[in-house]
Every structure is written in C-alpha cells, then in structure tokens.
Design a protein that fits this description.
With about 350 residues, the protein is mainly alpha-helical. It has a single domain (about 25-160, about 180-335), classed as ABC transporter involved in vitamin B12 uptake, BtuC, CATH 1.10.3470. About 70% of the residues lie in helices and about 5% in strands. The protein contains 13 helices and four strands. Strands 1-4 form a two-stranded antiparallel sheet. Strands 2-3 form a two-stranded antiparallel sheet. Strand 2 (about 185-190) and strand 3 (about 190-195) form a beta hairpin. Helix 4 (about 70-90) runs antiparallel to helix 5 (about 100-125), helix 4 packs across helix 11 and helix 7 (about 195-215) runs antiparallel to helix 10.
C-alpha cells in the first residue's frame, strides 16, 4: 500500500514540475501513450506561447530595420530579475486573495514597462547612432549590448535581499516565488492542466490579439508597416521614422517583459544565463516562421515549444537541441524564407 501511495505521489510531483522523464511513465504503465502525448502537448503549447511572445520582439525589430537584436534574450533576463526584485521588496508573494491578483498584475505591468523602456534606451544609445553604418556594425553593437546586460544581471543577483539569497552567490539560480499555484486547474484522466498553464493562455493570447489590432488598424501600426516597406518613402510622406522605430523597440521589449514574468512563474527559477536559452529559442522561432513576419513568429514559437516538449518526453533531454536545430535546418533547406516568410527578389 505504501508503494502504491509513493508511486502516486511521484507521478503527481513529476506532472506538476514537468520533469523530462514523462516519457518513462508509459513504459512503467503509469500513463497511457495517449495521455503522455497529451501532457507533453500541453506543456509544449504553454512554453511555445511564451517563446512566441519573445520571438515577436525579434521579428518586429528585424522587420523594420533588419537588425537581429541579440540583446533581446538578455533583456528578458533582466526583466525576470526586476520582477523578482519587486516581489521581494513589496512582499507580493505574501499578498492573498484580491491583493494577490493585484500584485501579479503590478509585477506584469511593471516588468513590461521596465523592459520596454530599457529596450528603447538601448536603441537610442547604441543602435540609433549607427543607423547609417554597415549592418555588421549594428550586429556587433547588439552582441556588445548582450554582454553588458549579462554582466548587469550577474551584479544584480548579488543584491543583499532575501529573494537573492542575501547576495551570497550572485551566479547561482534564484527561486521565483509561486505567485500562481501550480495546482491542477483541471484534470482529464491523468492529464493535468495546471493554473500556470491557464495563466500562460490568459496573458499571451490577449497580448497577441492586441498586437494584431495595433499593427493592422491603428495609425502607429500603419506607420510601422510603411517604415518596414520603405523608410525613405515613409519619411517623405511625413512619418517620423525614428519615433516609429523607437515605438517598435518599446513594444517588443514590453512583450518580452510580459513573457519573462510568465516564464519565471511557469518554471519557478531564474538565472543570469537564462537570457541565452530564451533568446536562442525565440530567434530560432522567428527564423523558422519567417523572420519579419509576426504570424510566423507565433507559429515558430509554438512549434519550437512543442518540439522541445516532445523531444524531452520521448527522447533524452540532451538530444533536444539537436532535434530542434535539425528540424530548423531541414525547413530552411527546402524553404529558406521560413514557413510563412515571403520570397523577396534581390535588386541588382
């Protein structure tokens, strides 16, 4: 009887913590193959939506000024540290009921504003002076900005606060408080849909709908599309190109801020190196879907999330990066512009 209870407790813990050994449950008879697949699909879709939000920041910037902003992932890392600082300074993890919901909204909005402002500042200080320089100069400046943000995160992790373990080990991963419980919100058979899964959907889907409306139906969105197609022509038509570019950086950074809070709540750990993984997944998603294409970034993010989850579940986790990059290479070989990217003719 004790072994049965222990097995049940282990199964629940693994389902809630999303360990990579889910594929082993089917072999042991604890979960059916269909239930394993569905559980992995739920996890993959949740992670994919987070990746998609970050990938949108990449593709917005590239679509307008054709710059791969390699600092974007590390910007999200600083956003996670900012959110953790706010939680620790205000004790948001101790707020309950309506106050807890307000605290979560405060952390989400505050982090989005922080990341948006930081991204705008990076553009203003590092990228704008090099706008007329070669694309290689811009690329090098983006890599330099990434290194600066990584080191800022390393110093930030040494703050003498309880949430940073009193700053005794700045490089160590930090536990992110569970502002949203990972308890099951719904369960069909042995497949668990947690509250954090619902949080991902409740945050990411409205943001994507709002962004779609902004780009397609607002004056700023039309200006963005005009600048993306022809910056010189847009300037001649009276559009403030630099203002539009700055707005794109701010919006992309804000989406990254929302995404990094959801990511931290979903995985419950942050580190100063997390920006590399987040940025790499988002960059791959943007390229896979067609960089410069917003729907393509969303599609690519979901695909990367699902591929990673399935690889973790059915293969060993050490093979996941190989699988992801292998699929990316195959798609780009047969469709170099990405899944939804348009084929453009080069002028000679």
């Amino acid at each position: 009887m004790q072994q049965t209870v222990a097995a049940a407790e282990f199964l629940a813990a693994c389902a809630l913590s999303r360990v990579d050994a889910v594929g082993g449950f089917a072999r042991d008879g604890l979960l059916s193959s269909q239930e394993v697949f569905t559980q992995q699909l739920v996890t993959g879709l949740s992670n994919g939506m987070i990746i998609a939000l970050i990938a949108i920041g990449y593709t917005m910037v590239y679509g307008i000024i054709e710059l791969i902003n390699f600092a974007h992932g590390d910007l999200c890392m600083l956003g996670a540290y900012f959110a953790l600082t706010v939680v620790g300074a205000l004790g948001v993890d101790q707020w309950a009921g309506t106050g807890g919901m307000m605290g979560l909204v405060l952390v989400l909005v505050g982090t989005a504003a922080f990341c948006g402002s930081l991204n705008w500042s990076i553009n203003r200080l590092a990228y704008r002076p090099l706008r007329k320089a070669s694309k290689l100069s811009l690329l090098v400046s983006a890599i330099g900005a990434s290194f600066i943000l990584v080191n800022l995160g390393l110093f930030w992790g040494g703050l003498p606060m309880d949430v940073f373990a009193d700053g005794t080990s700045s490089a160590a991963p930090k536990a992110f408080p569970a502002l949203v419980s990972a308890a099951p919100a719904a369960q069909i058979g042995d497949v668990i849909y947690s509250r954090t899964d619902l949080l991902v959907l409740c945050v990411t889907l409205p943001l994507m709908v709002a962004l779609t409306y902004l780009v397609r139906f607002t004056k700023l969105g039309k200006a963005m599309r005009a600048v993306a197609q022809n910056p010189t022509g847009a300037s001649l038509m009276g559009i403030d190109v630099e203002r539009v570019i700055g707005a794109s950086f701010f919006i992309g950074g804000s989406l990254g801020g929302f995404a990094t809070v959801v990511y931290s709540l979903y995985n419950q750990t942050v580190s100063f190196q997390m920006g590399y993984r987040m940025g790499m997944d988002a960059f791959i998603a943007a390229v896979l879907g067609g960089i410069g294409n917003l729907p393509g970034a969303v599609l690519g993010g979901i695909l990367i999330g699902v591929i990673r989850s399935m690889s973790d579940g059915y293969l060993e986790a050490r093979w996941t990066n190989t699988v992801v990059f292998g699929i990316l290479i195959l798609i780009l070989v047969f469709r170099p512009s990405g899944l939804l990217g348009a084929k453009l003719r080069e002028k000679v």
